[in-house]
Design brief:
homodimer, three-stranded antiparallel beta sheet, DNA-binding, about 110 residues, Arc Repressor Mutant, subunit A, alpha+beta, about 55% helix
DNA sequence: TTGCCATACCTAAGATTCTTATGTATATTT
DNA sequence: AAATATACATAAGAATCTTAGGTATGGCAA
């Protein structure tokens, strides 16, 4: 992506949001989805994603389930009930975050 | 602020943008301005700000000038000519960043 | 007049979050 | 046969911040 450091701190809410909208996803799918939603400009690295998924599961925000498709392992993640609450809160923070950015950068839509 | 880690990586473009719009500012003023632009929600810590200002100056993006007001030192910063080019580029990155967030979080303004 | 808050600068240690590099394995395409 | 895509994973190090301190001046309230 253009400037990776802009996205520092934003990966966690992205993952939570995608799982809220798509019910269940596996890691590799998340990286593809983000690429697709940003015209190939935002590339989530696996070195960031997989440890994050593990810690979200450890926190009880996500739960996982393994499946085999075409003889390849997939680890599907979905939000737990607690994760759904976290998701609502996280979404509120993000909308506020974007509003703040628009204020600071004088980008308020007319 | 609500979730500080969201703002990781965003401080540098904020400082550059404010200096582009305000011609010259001192550190403490920057923290107040950001607070004011975000209804008190975003608080830049001095431990992040001052080292950043120093490194931006070392990079040749900013230049500084000291003044005494009411017997208190102020260090005013402004963009160098090179800083102005950096500012344009940085602004482009931020607008793209916000667009990507709106895509990912499904927040496109109607 | 003493203590507290605001202004105004600064640094250092540590936490958090990422990148980069590497590893394993299977399936498909060239 | 080799490269590319899929799909998981970890570890070392870089980048960016928070937290916690420090120095100093000025104004206000107890």
């Amino acid at each position: 992506m253009n400037n990776p450091s802009l996205y520092k701190g934003i990966l966690r809410p992205i993952v939570i949001r995608l799982l809220e909208e798509n019910k269940k996803m596996y890691g590799f799918e998340i990286t593809r989805e983000v690429k697709s939603l940003t015209a190939g400009r935002v590339k989530i690295t696996e070195g960031a994603l997989y440890p994050l998924l593990h810690s979200l599961e450890a926190e009880g925000v996500l739960e996982s389930e393994q499946q085999f498709v075409d003889n390849r392992m997939r680890k599907y993640y979905k939000l737990t009930p607690r994760g759904k609450k976290v998701s609502e809160h996280s979404f509120g923070e993000i909308t506020e975050f974007i509003t703040h950015l628009q204020n600071i950068f004088n980008l308020k839509p007319a």
